[in-house]
Amino acid sequence: MVASNATTEALTTATTLLDKLEDAGQQSLVLAVDIGGTKMDVAVVDGSGGFLWRDRRETPGSPDGEDVFAPLGQLVAEAVRFAGDRLVACGVGCGGPMAQDGVTVSPLNIPAWRDFPLRERLKELSGVPTLVDNDAKALALGEGWIGGARGCGNYLAMVVSTGVGGGLVMDGKLLEGASGNAGHIGHVVVEPEGRACACGGRGCLEAEASGLSIEAITGFPAKEASLPVRQRTGTLVGRAVASVASLLDLPLALVGGSVALGFGEPFFAAAQDEVSYRCGLSFARETRVVPVMLGERGPLVGAAALGWNVLPGGHRAKR
Q: What is the pTM of this model?
């Protein structure tokens, strides 16, 4: 495990979370919601990160925002009935961009939601304080809580799936940025004359290495990608990680998502090789690129961490 560089005075997200769990009591539960371009995943999670109830639905491709929300609303209602009065908070991970504090969301992978009031809708359904944040930022919290970044104060967590997202922890605290959208590594340029991206830019990592982009480039679903495609995808991710590691002095990059985890060793070897090749500064060359420890559970564990963090006494204010 990489040792934390945070000072003794810095309050780490993991410590904050554990303190709140102690205060809340082990009988309390949170609702965890992970929203992606292909699926909506909901779980009831206890104080140790265990799932007591879980279900998912496909994300509708409808152009109507209410049609997209309908299956999510059904899942949340079922989860609330299961948890009963033990439910104390709701944490939601969703693609971005989004407004400050997740009041509204406009995920690039869900075109029907533009300035959609997701937080208020889920707060009404759940009846508990609700926090919405970027899904990759949630993953970063989850990996710091009970995953591969536990004990590390500076790291990047990434999702390479339908889209590409990231969350940054610096000096033990989740990096927010001016509007709460810090960490969008999917929009770091890795091919200057590359493909047009849904964000309006060109050559972004997401435009070259996401599952949707791989299918558009090759004509095949990402899960059927050839070895060269898997290696190229890893190389591009490593290129983006190299830039961020050099800028922010990060010793660790954890990568999850269906594309990264599905591509496996060839992807991670190529990513690590590219970091070593691109980074001239010694501290950046030492950056390790590894799979997330929590696997496919990571996004929901991260959403649960957001839920626990909505309670009083943490680094985020109560919503």
A: 0.85
